[in-house]
Each structure stands twice: as C-alpha cells, then as structure tokens.
Amino acid sequence: MASTADHLSAQELETLSSKAIAAKATAYCPYSKFRVGACILTQSGEYVQGANVENASYPVGTCAERVAFGNAIVAGHREFKAIAVATDIKPAASPCGMCRQFMSEFTTPSFPIFMYDGEGNYSLTTMGELLPHSFGPKDFSH
C-alpha cells in the first residue's frame, strides 16, 4: 500500500495529519462525544479541514469527511491528492459508507486515505479498497 502515498512528500503528510488531528477540536458532537477531524490536500497544495457536526436528530448530522469535501468544493477545488481522517479511538476508524460514496464522486480508486487513531498512528488504504465496484459520474453517459 505504500505506493499510494508515494506522491506525498514527508512535509505534506506531516501537515495533512496534524491538520486532521487538530480539526477534531472543532467537532460539534455533544451527543456521541465521538470527535472526528479530516483534512484534504488539494492538487494545488491547499489543505481543507472539516469536522463532524451532530444534530439532535441524529441522521441530520454530517461527518468530517463530507464537511471537508464540501468546504473544498465550495472553495472551487475539484482535484485532490489525499485525505487524512482522525479519531480518538484505537484502531483508527474508517470513513462510513455514506462518506465513502460521497468521496468517490471526487476521487479515483487510487486516492489515498490516511486513518489516524487517538495516538497519532495511521493506517493507509485507498478509495478503491474502501468502495470497490463504486457507482459514480463515470456511470452516466452524456
């Protein structure tokens, strides 16, 4: 799996991880107390953060990954290099199914996803590994 991260420099990975971990502090999670932070590295070298935002009506809450991608899309970004997702648990949590589908809209199967646990250790996977046989823009004929 290391090859999926080969296009990131050590500095990019360090910044990506520190910003994802820091984003946990901005989470609004009064019900679950489950903090999640995320940070996307865009192809243009910008870092875009997100955190989970809960709601008293549980299904209305938004995950950190979708907040980060929403922030990036609204800011005009369309090409992404990697994402880091950070939680307080061990082992690290992976993006939920809804986030996997959402992220697949804007990424490729080789897109790297770094998942950080509460101690700052990470595991690495790809979009294709998290959501094989995905459905997306390529499935629409125009």
UniProtKB/TrEMBL annotation:
Substrate binds at N52, V53, E54, N55, A56, S57, Y58. It catalyses: cytidine + H2O + H(+) = uridine + NH4(+); 2'-deoxycytidine + H2O + H(+) = 2'-deoxyuridine + NH4(+). Signal peptide: none annotated. It comes from the Eukaryota. The active site is at E65 (proton donor). SUPFAM superfamilies: Cytidine deaminase-like. It holds the Pfam family dCMP_cyt_deam_1. Its cofactor is Zn(2+). GO terms for cellular component: cytosol. Residues 11-138 form the CMP/dCMP-type deaminase domain. InterPro entries: CMP_dCMP_dom, Cyt/Deoxycyt_deaminase, Cyt_deam_tetra, Cytidine_deaminase-like. Belongs to the cytidine and deoxycytidylate deaminase family. NCBIfam families: cyt_deam_tetra, PRK05578.1. This is Cytidine deaminase.
